[in-house]
Amino acid sequence: MPSVKVARKTADTDMTPFVDIAFLILTFFIMATKMKPPEPVEITTPNSVSTKELPANDAVMVEMDGQGRVFFTMLSENDPEAKLTVIRNLNQNKNLGLTENEMKNFVKSYSIGVPFTQLKPLLATPAEQQKDIKQPGIPVRDTTNNELTTWIRDAVTAMSGRKLNYLIKADNNAKYPDFKHVLTAFKKNDIYKFQLVTSPEDVPAGTDLARSRAGAQ
Amino acid sequence: MASLDTGGGDVGHKKGPGVKKQKKMSTRIDMTPMVDLGFLLITFFIFTSTMSTPATMDLFMPKDTDKDEEQNKAKESGALTVMMSKDNHVYYYEGQLAPDASNFKSTNFDPESGIRKVIMDKKRSTNAEDLVIVIKPGKEATYKNTVDILDEMTINEVKRFALVDISEVEEQLIAATEGGGAPAPAAQ
């Protein structure tokens, strides 16, 4: 009985196009990724329908995590001198006894979340390792000793002459009274316009905003 | 596996009898490790990339003032007071709070039947220039609640709203409601 001949197929697939696409995607992700600076706290921001973009420069940002710890950040990539001015002023006014190196380290640090008394040990550690230190947050609850007010005032003075943005980035679980304390600190510096950092969200259908946005297009 | 084949072209090429045959090197390169590494990097960048850039939402607060004549006046008929409390509970009343708290109602953040519907109904039933929404986040309200309610103002295009501290009476009413009982009369 003659056996049916099965055509022998090679097990070797040509994977070149596959590899091509893979590296194309890889290149895309490398280009598209913006490396996040190390942040000492994880903050999940609430969603809003707002579409305004987050400014990356000339901004003062106050962050607040779920436990109500407050962190202060100056976003001034174009001008590192401004940050240096702030810490120099602070060092002088509050007698912190910081060394030149510690002040330079402040420029590299992303955010600060300690009372003035603990600022020296924090800045003695390199900026990359600061996220391992447990920071208790800047005191804001006490109205007589609202240290955030001082931070904001110094930052505004250092960056005077420029249009500043005041950002508040708080966690979903942060309590409203803590948020109010942060607002109070801004208000004491005669700042009344804020920008709340949120994640984008779609406009719900059938609402007035959805109608007017559709009409505008 | 992926391979480069440049094809051995000199099969039929005969050399002379004294010429030593050179050992033929394979031109096929095993690309498996390269592909492995490629995919490893893809996975890494996919996980680390933050695709959605954060947006910002404007919030303008008024200057604190004690002078009575500088305070913004709101028409009673157009006022809607919204209070937030723990576990995403929302309470609201229209106009003035009745002494027996009969107009003190409870709702939530549900997109269909929650506070959005209340605001939409209120907006429809009042003149546009009279409508004022007073937002009073309670002690237990989270930041998310605050942003959500401010977002409702944008969504429903409410032009006049104010972020105000909650009063003692309202706190007690919320506490009484959450305690399980019916809204207690406002204790003075």
Automatic annotation (TrEMBL), chain A:
Localisation: Cell membrane
Keyword Hydrolase: no
Transmembrane parts of this sequence: 15-32
Cellular component, GO annotation: plasma membrane
Record-linked Pfam families: ExbD (PF02472)
Family: Belongs to the ExbD/TolR family.
Protein's name according to its UniProt entry: Outer membrane transport energization protein ExbD
Origin organism lineage: Bacteria, Pseudomonadati, Bacteroidota, Chitinophagia, Chitinophagales
UniProtKB/TrEMBL annotation, chain B:
Region (Disordered) location: 1-25
Compartments it resides in: Cell membrane
Pfam families from the UniProt entry: ExbD
Compositionally biased residues, Basic residues: 14-25
One BP term from GO: protein transport
Principal location listed in the UniProt entry: membrane
Extent of Gly residues compositional bias: 1-10
Single GO cellular component term: plasma membrane
Statement: the UniProt record of this protein carries the keyword Ribonucleoprotein: no
Membrane protein topology class: Single-pass membrane protein; Single-pass type II membrane protein
Keywords: Cell membrane, Membrane, Protein transport, Transmembrane, Transmembrane helix, Transport
GO molecular function: transmembrane transporter activity
Family classification: Belongs to the ExbD/TolR family.
Database matches in PANTHER family: BIOPOLYMER TRANSPORT PROTEIN EXBD-RELATED (PTHR30558:SF3), EXBD MEMBRANE COMPONENT OF PMF-DRIVEN MACROMOLECULE IMPORT SYSTEM (PTHR30558)
Protein known as: Outer membrane transport energization protein ExbD
Lineage, broadest ranks: Bacteria, Pseudomonadati, Bacteroidota, Chitinophagia, Chitinophagales
